[in-house]
Write a structure and sequence with these properties.
alpha/beta, two-stranded antiparallel sheet, 7-stranded mixed β-sheet, about 375 residues, 14 helices, homodimer, Dehydroquinate synthase-like, alpha domain, NAD (chains A, B), Rossmann fold
Chain lengths: ~375, ~375
């Protein structure tokens, strides 16, 4: 099984990637934590547990399962408090281990629970969506949403192990697979031209859910993430490049109230806007820009949404990545390279966002004509 | 102004102690943080702000004030979420600084807000009760209560500065002053015989609120705390000695639903129980035990409460200081020395707790006779 090492000033752990990992989950957790007697608390969604609960608990003598309903709307303080009370009532102590079995919402929220229960207990991430496997399960970011914005609350709390079983992706809805692959494209664009080429050449296999092809994609994406986090754990510099496509992507999610697009889909559109901005500036060649935009659409279709360019630019100003007023923007300069710039004007951002929206509008029209 | 240094693996900051510090608060915060432009958000209680708001903001050109009603019942997730939403709506960003102006509840909760807002922003502690000045404002522990128990949630998040102004204690209710002094007695017993003697010799002055005497008490108590935390930030060993009196103290608070006694008062009774246990074991001489118990009562009266010894012992078993089943107990062995033991039996604890309750009962009877 390939295993990828995270080594930051505050944590050191392995990401194990492969197939048939679930059936030996207990042993893997014991090996990673050195704790044979710690109590295990799973946090998962009811639907996922119905599909995989039996397989997951095969290697366990006992474990407590706490449920979090699926969906972003449950990534709120009400769920946090409820689950913390359940942990306390079920006797979780400082030696207990939480296992997040689910996608981004379960992973972010369970990581946060582990960060704050009794001032910090251990968590193992077992990501079940492509998005969580390539991105959110690794790197220690945890988060909860406020009414005022997404992920405005959280902490840095690394897992003691990440166990990513490709088999679990079999039951992942196809649109979630495609959305997750947008983050893989992101990894290629910012740092791994070979991953980018692989995604170009093997699109059919990857989209069909071919295990070996998916494993290559997850593996390479994870290595990008690990490499970046190992160099800048707390996002003071390099780690910001992981936010390529996220400035406008987050604004799209906020403008559509998180109900129209999956996160990866919003990031797909956000990357297109960033590419258009890079083109306008002459930072990226027309040819490279076309390759990236084509690949994003190849892993689509990205659903259309309704929002004005002005509104998206306005919403992007409130992104929490901003610090002390300076707005950072991740600008691709080629396939595999980006730069962090702070001089993007509102006009530039507006022009790029408008270009992206026009593209969407043109595609929608084409589709309608085809339908006729 | 005496200033005490905290230097742990994760943080380094000064505690400034003195009088007339509030009028230069802005400059002190700027000096400690190096941030002249960061936005400042005060968290405080309405009653306290009425008394001190004008003095506190004298040195500020602008600041936002968020209110948390006084009392332990507000140290809950509902308050946390409400204040986080207010921070977001008022435009707090990663460079903003929270200032906790209040006692233990304000300090613990504001520290937690700072730990989780945007995954961590800076906090300055300006403690206004004796308890907060000698103990809770220093050391990075933050906390929120669950229905299932007190401080079951929180994180380690050190302030960037602690500014303790003795003047503020002038408006502190006398019972709160006395309760806070129980924690000073604790500091003396566990590590500072000179502080203990000072408290014995200067009881009248200290209890009358004499500024110079109080400053000596706060200064020496803080040095004990800083010294311990500097050696064991995360409470894996030495820091546990700060919990002297807290095993039964916490149980008393839980048994009386946090409404009968102030925290320091419960710790006073908890220390008496621990002293009786030490005596039973022969760990502490009868003479030393008498000195400690006499001093605790000298800084009383500790209010009586109703609880069965069995119930207190039962509740103490759920204390979160326990880890993986092993129960640690802080046993005084003299004035200024303690040891951490793990072999205290339930019977011993029951006997010591019963002895403490009998003492309380005897005192109550005496008082009634006197009244007649």
């Amino acid at each position: 099984m390939p295993s990828i090492s995270l080594k930051t000033p505050s944590a050191s752990y392995d990401v194990t990637l492969g197939t048939s990992l679930l059936k030996t989950l207990r042993q893997r957790i014991t090996r990673a934590t050195g704790s044979r007697t710690s109590r295990i608390f799973f946090v998962t969604s009811p639907a996922l547990w119905k599909l995989w609960g039996e397989a997951v608990t095969e290697s366990f003598e006992s474990a407590t399962v706490l449920f979090l309903p699926a969906g972003e709307s449950h990534k709120r303080f009400a769920s946090v408090e409820k689950l913390l009370e359940q942990l306390a009532r079920n006797g979780a102590d400082r030696d207990s281990i939480l296992v997040a079995f689910g996608g981004g919402v379960v992973g972010d929220l369970t990581g946060f629970l582990a960060a704050i229960y009794m001032r910090g207990i251990r968590v193992v991430q077992v990501p079940t969506t492509l998005l969580a496997q390539v991105d959110s399960s690794v790197g220690g970011k945890t988060g909860v949403n406020l009414a005022a914005g997404k992920n405005l609350v959280g902490s840095f709390h690394h897992p003691v192990a990440v166990i990513a079983d490709i088999d679990v992706l079999q039951t992942l809805p196809k649109n979630e697979l495609r959305a997750g692959l947008q983050e893989a494209i992101k990894s290629g664009v910012i740092r791994d031209p070979k991953l980018f080429s692989f995604l170009e050449k093997n699109a059919d296999k990857v989209l069909a859910g071919d295990t070996k092809a998916l494993q290559t994609v997850v593996d390479r994406s994870l290595r990008v993430k690990a490499d970046v986090v190992n160099q800048d754990e707390l996002e003071n510099g390099l780690r910001m490049i992981l936010n390529f496509g996220h400035t406008i992507g987050h604004a799209i999610e906020a403008a559509t109230k998180y109900t129209v697009l999956l996160h990866g889909e919003a990031i797909g559109w956000g990357m297109i806007a960033a590419i258009r901005l890079a083109e306008q500036r002459g930072a990226m060649s027309e040819k490279d820009a076309k390759r990236v935009v084509d690949l994003i659409h190849r892993y689509g279709p990205l659903p259309a949404f309704k929002a004005k360019a002005e509104r998206l630019v306005e919403l992007s100003a409130g992104d929490k990545k901003n610090r002390g007023g300076a707005k950072r923007f991740i600008l691709p300069t080629g396939i595999g390279t980006v730069e962090i710039v702070t001089d993007v004007t509102e006009d530039e951002l507006l022009a790029a966002t408008s270009a992206m929206l026009q593209e969407m509008s043109a595609m929608t029209k084409t589709k309608k004509q085809v339908k006729r």
